Amino acid sequence: MLSLEQCSQKKFLVFGLGISGNATLTQLKKNKANIECWDDSKQLREKFKNRYRVNKDWFKSSYDFIVISPGINIYSHSKKSFFQKNTNKIITDLDLFCSSIKDQKVILVTGTNGKSTMCKLIYDLLKNSKKKVYIGGNYGTPVLNLPYKEKSAIFVLELSSYQLDYSLRLTSSVSILLNVSPDHIERHKSFEKYILAKLKIFKGLTQTGKGFLDLSNDKQSKIFKVLKSEKYNQRNIQLIKKNIHHHIKDSLISAALKGSHFSNCLYIALQIAKLFNISKKVYLKTIKDFSGLSHRQEIIKIKNNLTFVNDSKATNFASTEVALNNYKNIHWIVGGIAKEKDKITIKKFKRSILKAYIIGKNINFFLKKIKNTIKYNASHSLKNALLSAVSETKKNPNLKQVILLSPSAASFDQYKNFEHRGNTFKQLVKKYS
Question: pLDDT tens-digit profile of 187-211?
Answer without folding.
Answer: 888 888 999 999 999 988 998 999 9
